[in-house]
Structure formats: C-alpha cells, structure tokens
UniProtKB/TrEMBL annotation:
GO terms for molecular function: hydrolase activity. Gene3D superfamilies: Chitosanase, subunit A, domain 1. Keywords: Hydrolase. Pfam families: Glyco_hydro_108, PG_binding_3. Residues 98-176 form the Peptidoglycan binding domain. It comes from Sphingosinicella xenopeptidilytica. It comes from the Bacteria. Coiled coil: none annotated. This is Glycoside hydrolase family 108 protein. The lineage of its organism: Bacteria, Pseudomonadati, Pseudomonadota, Alphaproteobacteria, Sphingomonadales. Transmembrane segments: none annotated. InterPro entries: Lysozyme-like_dom_sf, Peptidoglycan-bd_3, TtsA-like_GH18_dom. Residues 9-91 form the TtsA-like Glycoside hydrolase family domain.
Length: 184
C-alpha cells in the first residue's frame, strides 16, 4: 500500500501546476490547492507561485492528519487512500460522510454492527464500524466498501454536472483521474 508521501506525490502530479479555469467555482488553484485553502494555511503570495512543498504540507496536514484519515489508514489503507482523494476533491466532510453512509448500508440492518451517526467526521463510532466490517467480512468486505465509496463519489460528480452544466467541463477528468487511482 502507498504511504501518505506516495499518495501526495500521485496527487501533485495529477493536479499539475497553476490553473485558473473560468468555470471552476474554486477559482485559481496550484497543485490542486485553492487560494482560500492556501491563505488559510498562511500563504500570502501569488497562487501561480505557491511552492510545491507547501501544497504537499497542506495535503498532509489538512487532508490526512486533521481529517483522521491517517487513523483509517491504520485499519484499511485502501479505504484511507480513497477518502484522502475524495476529501481533497470534495471536502473531508463529504468523504467521511460517504464512509458513514456506506458502513450503515452494509451492516445488514445492524446485525453486524450498529448504525453510526452521520457526523461527517472520522470519530470513534466510524472507526469501530470500519473495524467491524473488516472483522466480519475480511478483505472482501474492504473491497465492497471501497466499491461503495467509489459509487458515491461517481454519483456525486454526475449530480454536480446535472445541477450546474458548467461542471460538465470537469466530469470526464474527475472520473478518469480519480476513481480507482489510489488503491489499485
């Protein structure tokens, strides 16, 4: 399994450098980091000049450690990689919410583990449910959970394009460059 450094490196390569697409509501980005995120991390320069190392530090801190995805990684590295990727693109709360929804849908009406609150954070209940699916279903359970997360991610991309036609400019790239990349 890939380390967080490997995941960040793959992400930086895929996101590329400076982009300022007129249809991107996030505005100008560099290495996939929005200006708002860079400013929140203390960067004051032009987005075109954002250092690659700072982008990597932001990903490591804000999208790995602060989210709790590092704790998921200790249990299920493929799931953590998927959450990291989804969290970067859609926000960590969305990624955590996808995990909670999938775990609740897979618990066979609470026979295998209790439903968990939709806190949209990686909390102790979420980690307990993740442990339970791995204990109950083994590696196959992790694979099915991964498929559920990818399905939710893909569905969200289509819904974003349906709700805002300008997002159609991005859907192909979102799907081609995200689904399955981090845990093959």
């Amino acid at each position: 399994m890939a380390s967080i450094d490997d995941l960040i490196e793959m992400l930086l390569r895929r996101e590329g450098g400076f982009v300022d697409h007129p249809d991107d509501r996030g505005g100008a980005t560099n290495f996939g980091i929005t200006e708002a995120t860079a400013r929140a991390a203390g960067y004051a320069g032009a987005m075109r000049d954002l250092p690659r190392s700072m982008a990597a530090d932001i990903y490591r801190k804000r999208y790995w450690h602060e989210t709790g995805f590092d704790r998921v990684n200790a249990l299920a590295p493929r799931i953590a990689a998927e959450l990291f990727d989804t969290g970067v693109n859609m926000g960590p709360a969305v990624a955590a919410g996808f995990l909670q929804r999938a775990l609740n849908a897979l618990n066979r009406r609470e026979r295998d583990w209790p439903d968990i609150p939709q806190s949209r954070t990686i909390d102790t209940a979420t980690l307990a449910a993740l442990k339970a699916i791995i204990q109950t279903r083994g590696k196959a359970g992790e694979t099915v959970l991964l498929r559920a997360l990818e399905a939710l991610q893909g569905t969200r991309y289509i819904e974003l394009a349906e709700a805002r036609p300008a997002n159609e400019n991005f859907v192909y790239g979102w799907l081609a460059g995200r689904i399955g990349d981090f845990h093959a």
